[in-house]
Amino acid sequence: MKSRVLVLGAGFGGMELSTLLSEALGEKADVTVIEKGDSFVFGYSKIDVMFGRATPEAVRLPYRNFVKPGVHFVQETITAIDPVARRVATTGGTHEADFLVVALGADYDLAATPGLAEDGHEFYSVAGASRVRELLPAFSRGPAIVGVSGFPYKCPPAPSECALMLDGYLTARGVRGACEITLVLPLSSPVPASADLSRALVGAFAERGITLLLGRSVKALEPGRKTAVLDDGTELPYALYLGVPKHQVPQPVLASGMAENGWVPINLRTLETRFPDVYAIGDGAATGLPKSGSFAESAARSVASSILARLEGGEATPNPGTGSCFVEFGDGRLGWVDMDFLTGPKLTTIYHEPSVARRADKVQFGDRRRARWFGL
Ligand SMILES: Cc1cc2nc3c(=O)[nH]c(=O)nc-3n(C[C@H](O)[C@H](O)[C@H](O)COP(=O)(O)OP(=O)(O)OC[C@H]3O[C@@H](n4cnc5c(N)ncnc54)[C@H](O)[C@@H]3O)c2cc1C
Q1: How confident is the prediction for the chain on average, in pLDDT?
Q2: Rounded to two decimals, what is the model's pTM?
Q3: Which CATH superfamily is domain 5-106+249-319 in?
């Protein structure tokens, strides 16, 4: 009998893992991918949507095109996970597995920041970014805050990108002089893993008159007073609040007993949870590494090698903890940083200075995955 692999979630981690298993095993694979959505959207496309560079429809990649030998895609919502029995309940029934891989990403807890849902605008979901896209043209004066409500959060550079993109957007409309922009980050620098990138971002903020507040997060919004309250008691008035909500694993993972302090503990090298033959990859795993798509992919490669070693023999490859983050500088230039946390004894990074020409690399990043996962 074939070993059944159940992959929960078809994001960066889940799609890469199932693609690798399909490539290695073909029709011999017995992989079921359970996903609640009907389409995939790259994280960075939300920035494009919000600033009007792409429509919400144009950035959706329908899962009907995610077709791989030996992989069965099921569009159902997961309601409960039993990691001991490796059994999953969904809106469509029950699924059991020999290997279970949790790749459900991170959800947003808007309620953890009182006032955010009422008067703020999160831009980390397609729906949120689409709403911001509609309201931005009406914003022409007063203070704008780009605020983060907790750590860890996805794509550490994204709030900085948002502040720089907002600057570029308001400048193009000729209203930048009437607006202030403040960026509130809970970190010690914009992207702590890369001193070079952080320096470049701090320089860009200074050049463009963006106020940067580090080491603080936004605790609440007071809609009546149009004021954001930070965790150190600082109060900031806003006319426009663009927010990154507190993150945590989706509810079924919280309820499964797999998570501690909001995230699933794993062995960093093998991505194994404390439950036999149950792995967690991507944003939901408590790796301490940046929560980004390329890190989810490197974890997926490691888990694929581990499952294949169990099924076919051979060596499993430890998680290298490698990944890259693109950064929009808001003036047409794009930079990025490559990070390697686990291959050597310490973190190594390579910073690629921003330029307009580098935009082609981001396009290529998307094109390669569109072709690999969706055959488009
Ligand atoms: C604004 C922004 C910009 C970003 N920019 C970049 C970038 O430039 N580069 C980069 O590498 N990363 C970037 N990211 C981060 C990247 O999108 C995430 O880190 C990545 O998607 C994580 O992959 P994952 O597989 O862990 O989770 P996801 O890709 O989020 O996939 C999880 C999947 O699980 C599904 N799911 C959740 N709950 C259920 C349920 N109950 N039942 C069924 N299915 C469920 C979801 O629908 C989703 O499809 C950005 C993110 C944002 C928000």
Answers
A1: 97
A2: 0.97
A3: FAD/NAD(P)-binding domain (3.50.50.60)
